[in-house]
Amino acid sequence: MKLKTTLWRWGKEALLFVLLLFVLSTLLNLWRAPKIDESRFPNLSGHTLEGRSIKSLHKTGQPILLHFWGTWCPVCRQEASNIETVARRYPVLTVAVNSGSPEEIRAWMRERGISYPVLNDPYGTLAKRFGITTYPTSLIYDAAGKLKFVETGYTTTAGLLARMKLAE
Q1: Are 141 and 66 contacting, i.e. CB atoms less than 8 angstroms apart?
Q2: Which of 91, 126, 139, 156 is deepest in the core (most CB within 10 A)?
Q3: What pLDDT does 95 receive?
């Protein structure tokens, strides 16, 4: 009986800790999130490092993830495989901010087995346009191109996929 009581108490404390962590994480995300003036998917032009037209990535009727990151960012390195997983299922455009030349970014991606579409933002111009100051930052637009979610910092694969599903 004592063991059952002890397990119950530890279980309640663990649940309370997880709930508190979730609330703190959500509040931190809201505080760090950029104030995006554009509520629609931006009209971007140009080509990715792979030579694909940016316009061809955003397909009407599908949500899209616009992800700002940097090769110099330790959290971005941890999240790269999560973005890769999402890119296998949904349209994704990533923006490598202040990350060097196209060749340097390609080498960084090759070393990690990453193949998602990348737009090089060598001077942070596009990031400034969006007010991005925290890396990584993910903007999720719904199937109609309307901004639905803004996530800053590390986001799990499950979290990203759930938000993309909700944006469908």
Answers
A1: yes
A2: 139
A3: 96
Q: The tokens of 144 are what? A: 């109609």
Q: Which fold has domain 37-167?
A: Glutaredoxin (3.40.30)
Contacts of 85 (CB under 8 A, 6+ apart): 157, 160, 161
User: What does pTM read for this prediction?
Assistant: 0.79
Spell out the domain ranges in the chain.
1-32, 37-167
